[in-house]
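Help needed: design a sequence for this.
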C-alpha cells in the first residue's frame, strides 16, 4: 500500500472530473485523480465512452466521438500536471481531516475532495438491446433523448420511450419535436410521474401510451441497414405480443448515481444523488465537493457536468485558502470557518484530526481571524494573477525613485488598483507587500519561460503546431528548473505586452545604475536567482545583474578551479554582462515582433483565401481589398 498526501483528490473520469482537474492543476493544487477501472461497468472516461457522436459539446462543429472527446479531456488534465491513477476508489473516510480515500493499492490523504463519479443510465435487457452483433444499442436504442433525439435517423420516424416517471414524460414530450409519433411504453397500468407532467405529455397529440407493455425484442429495419426497425411488445396482463414499428427506442427508467463507495458519509437524496448546496458544489461535509451527474438529476449533460467541475475546483480552491491547507500538518486540529451547510444550517464544529487525536488547538480560523501558528499566506489563484498583472500594466511607474518610500507607494497604488477592480470583488484582499512578492514571482518565472519558449521556437520543426512549441517549452522549463511552469495564464497575458518587454529591456539597460527602479517596479533581479541551471543562467543573462552584486565593487569575480593547485580567477566586467543582457533582450523582442508579423501575414493570407473563395460577386470594397492583398503577396 502506498500513501499519498495531496491538496485535492478528484474521483471520477468524465467531463466533471477532468474539468475540475484542469482548473485545480492550473491553480497549482497538483491534484490526484482516480479515473476508476470499469467502475460501475463503465470504462475510464465515463458515460461518453458508451456513445458514438457527441454533437452538442461546444468547440466541435462537426461533432466528435465520445471516446475521442474524453481522450482530449484526459490529455488536457495531464498537460497541467494532474496525476492520474487508473484505479477505483472503494472506500472513503470523511469523518476526520485530512480526508482518506482508499483503493486496492493506495491510500490518499487529501485536504479537499471532489466527487465526480457520475451516474449510470439504467438499461433493460432483451433480444436486440445489446451492443454486439444483432444488437441495436447506439443504432436506434439510446438512454439519452436529449443527447441523441435530434439525430437524422430519428427525424419524422416513430419513436418509443420506455418508462413511467417524470423523465419518461419529459423525454417523450421532447422527442415529439423530431419524431412523427412517440409511444410511451410502461409495464404498469398507472404512471409514477407527477400529475402535471402526465397531463402535459398525455395532452400532446403526437404521444400515444401503451400501458401494461413490456418490450421483449428489438429487430432491424427492412432495408438491412443494421439500424432499429421495430419492437415486439408483450402485454403483461394478457400475454399477447404485438408488433410496433419504431426507429428509435429511449430508456427513461432512471439513473443510478455512483455513490455506494461513499457509504453514507455524504448527505444523499432519496434517489442516491449527492446533495449540494444550491448554486455551489459544497456537500454536507466541508471540504468535500461534488460535481457532474453524481449530483445532478436534472440536466445530465457533458457540458453541465464540465461546468460544475469548474465550480468544484474553484470552490475547493477557496476552501483551501480559507483553511490554509498548505500549512496543515498531520495531527493538527483545524477549526472550521463558520459554514452554512447545504440545508441552510450553520455550524462551526471543530474538525477532528485524521488520526482521531484531538490535541490543543494549534490554530483556529474563525470569522476570518487567525491565531496561533497559522500563517496568513494565501495562495494566489490565476484569476488574482490576472488582476494583479492588469494592475501592474495599468499603473504608471516611476523610473527614477529616490527613496524606498516612493517605491512602496508604487506598490500601494498597485494594491489599490487591485482592490478596486470589479474582477477582484469576490477575491481575497491583498496587501501591497503581497502584490509585490507575487509580481516578483510571476515576473521571474515568466522571464524564464520566455527563454524556454524562445529556445523551443528556434528548434521548431515544420510539422509542429503552436501548441507543440509550448509543450516543448514546458519540457525545457521542467528540465532546467526541476519544477513545472504553472503560470501559463500570466505568460499569455504578458507575452504580447510591449510595456512588459520594454520594462524588462529598460531594467536591463539601467541595471548598473538605477537599482531603485528595479525595486520600485518589482524587478526580479535579485542575486538569489543565481542558480546553476541553464534557464537560470539564461535568465541571468537576459536580466540585469543582481542588486547585491551590483552594490559591490562593480565587478563580479568568478572562480574556476582547474586542478587542486591551480586556481584561475577570471574577472567579468559589469559592462560585458550588461551588453550580453541587452543583446539577448533585443533578440527576444525581435523574435516577438517576428512572431507577430508572421501571424499578421497568416491572417492576411486567410482573408485573401476567403475573398477568392467567395462564389457571389465581390463588393467594390472587397474587390479593392483583394487586389491590395494580392499586390502585397506578390
Ligand atoms: C449513451 C449516452 C449518450 C450520451 N450522449 C451525450 C451527448 O451527446 N452529449 C452530452 O452532453 N451528454 C451526453 N450524455 C450524458 C453525459 O455523458 C453525462 O452527462 C456526462 O458524462 C456526465 O459526466 P460526469 O463527469 O458527471 O460523469 P460520468 O461521465 O458518468 O463519469 C464518471 C466516471 O467516474 C468513474 N468512477 C465512478 N465511480 C468511481 C470510483 N468509485 N472510483 C473511481 N472512478 C469512479 C467511472 O469511470 C465513471 O464512469 C450521454 C450519456 C449516455 C449514457
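Sure. Designed sequence:
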Amino acid at each position: 500500500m502506498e500513501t499519498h498526501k495531496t491538496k485535492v483528490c478528484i474521483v471520477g473520469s468524465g467531463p466533471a472530473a477532468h474539468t475540475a482537474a484542469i482548473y485545480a492543476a492550473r491553480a497549482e493544487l497538483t491534484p490526484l485523480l482516480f479515473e476508476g477501472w470499469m467502475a460501475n461497468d463503465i470504462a475510464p472516461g465515463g458515460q461518453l465512452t458508451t456513445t458514438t457522436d457527441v454533437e452538442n459539446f461546444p468547440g466541435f462543429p462537426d461533432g466528435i466521438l465520445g471516446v475521442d472527446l474524453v481522450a482530449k479531456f484526459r490529455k488536457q488534465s495531464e498537460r497541467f500536471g494532474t496525476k492520474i491513477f487508473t484505479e477505483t476508489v472503494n472506500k472513503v473516510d470523511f469523518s476526520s481531516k485530512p480526508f482518506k480515500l482508499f483503493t486496492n493499492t493506495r491510500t490518499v490523504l487529501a485536504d479537499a475532495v471532489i466527487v465526480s463519479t457520475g451516474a449510470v443510465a439504467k438499461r433493460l435487457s432483451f433480444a436486440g438491446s445489446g451492443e454486439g452483433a444483432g444488437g441495436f444499442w447506439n443504432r436506434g436504442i439510446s438512454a439519452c433523448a436529449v443527447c441523441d433525439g435530434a439525430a437524422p435517423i430519428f427525424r419524422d420516424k416513430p419513436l418509443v420511450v420506455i418508462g413511467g416517471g417524470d423523465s419518461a414524460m419529459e423525454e417523450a414530450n421532447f422527442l415529439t419535436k423530431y419524431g412523427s409519433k412517440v409511444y410511451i411504453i410502461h409495464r404498469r397500468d398507472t404512471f409514477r410521474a407527477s400529475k402535471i407532467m402526465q397531463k402535459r405529455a398525455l395532452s400532446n397529440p403526437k404521444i400515444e401510451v401503451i400501458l401494461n407493455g413490456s418490450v421483449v425484442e428489438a429487430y432491424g429495419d427492412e432495408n438491412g441497414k443494421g439500424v432499429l426497425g421495430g419492437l415486439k411488445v408483450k402485454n403483461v396482463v394478457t400475454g399477447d405480443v404485438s408488433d410496433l414499428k419504431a426507429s428509435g427506442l429511449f430508456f427513461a427508467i432512471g439513473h443510478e448515481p455512483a455513490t455506494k463507495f461513499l457509504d453514507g458519509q455524504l448527505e444523499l437524496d432519496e434517489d442516491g444523488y449527492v446533495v449540494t448546496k444550491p448554486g455551489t458544489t459544497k456537500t454536507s461535509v466541508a471540504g468535500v465537493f461534488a460535481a457532474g451527474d453524481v449530483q445532478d438529476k436534472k440536466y445530465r449533460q457533458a457540458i453541465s457536468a464540465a461546468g460544475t467541475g469548474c465550480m468544484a475546483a474553484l470552490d475547493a480552491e477557496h476552501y483551501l485558502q480559507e483553511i490554509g491547507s498548505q500549512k496543515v500538518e498531520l495531527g493538527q486540529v483545524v477549526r472550521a470557518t463558520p459554514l452554512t451547510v447545504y440545508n441552510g444550517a450553520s455550524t462551526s464544529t471543530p474538525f477532528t484530526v485524521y488520526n482521531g487525536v484531538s490535541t490543543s488547538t494549534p490554530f483556529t480560523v474563525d470569522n476570518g481571524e487567525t491565531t496561533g501558528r497559522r500563517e496568513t499566506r494565501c495562495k494566489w489563484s490565476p484569476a488574482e494573477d490576472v488582476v494583479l498583472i492588469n494592475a501592474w500594466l495599468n499603473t504608471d511607474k516611476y523610473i527614477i525613485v529616490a527613496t524606498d518610500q516612493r517605491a512602496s507607494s508604487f506598490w500601494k497604488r498597485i494594491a489599490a488598483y487591485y482592490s478596486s477592480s470589479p474582477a477582484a470583488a469576490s477575491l481575497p484582499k491583498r496587501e501591497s507587500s503581497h502584490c509585490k512578492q507575487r509580481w516578483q514571482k510571476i515576473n521571474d518565472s515568466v522571464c524564464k519561460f520566455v527563454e524556454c519558449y524562445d529556445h523551443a521556437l528556434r528548434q521548431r520543426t515544420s510539422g509542429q503546431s503552436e501548441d507543440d512549441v509550448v509543450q516543448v517549452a514546458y519540457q525545457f522549463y521542467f528540465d532546467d528548473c526541476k519544477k513545472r511552469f504553472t503560470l501559463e495564464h500570466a505568460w499569455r497575458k504578458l507575452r504580447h505586452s510591449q510595456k512588459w518587454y520594454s520594462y524588462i529591456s529598460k531594467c536591463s539597460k539601467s541595471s548598473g545604475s538605477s537599482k531603485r527602479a528595479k525595486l520600485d517596479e518589482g524587478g526580479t533581479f535579485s542575486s538569489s536567482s543565481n542558480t546553476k541551471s541553464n534557464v537560470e543562467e539564461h535568465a541571468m543573462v537576459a536580466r540585469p545583474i543582481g542588486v547585491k552584486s551590483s552594490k559591490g565593487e562593480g565587478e563580479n569575480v568568478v572562480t574556476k578551479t582547474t586542478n587542486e593547485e591551480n586556481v584561475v580567477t577570471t574577472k567579468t566586467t559589469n559592462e560585458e554582462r550588461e551588453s550580453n543582457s541587452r543583446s539577448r533582450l533585443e533578440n527576444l523582442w525581435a523574435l516577438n515582433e517576428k512572431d507577430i508579423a508572421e501571424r499578421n501575414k497568416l491572417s492576411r493570407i486567410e482573408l485573401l483565401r476567403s475573398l477568392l473563395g467567395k462564389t457571389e460577386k465581390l463588393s467594390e470594397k472587397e474587390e479593392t481589398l483583394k487586389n491590395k492583398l494580392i499586390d502585397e503577396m506578390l
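Residues 33 and 603 are 40 Å apart (CA to CA).
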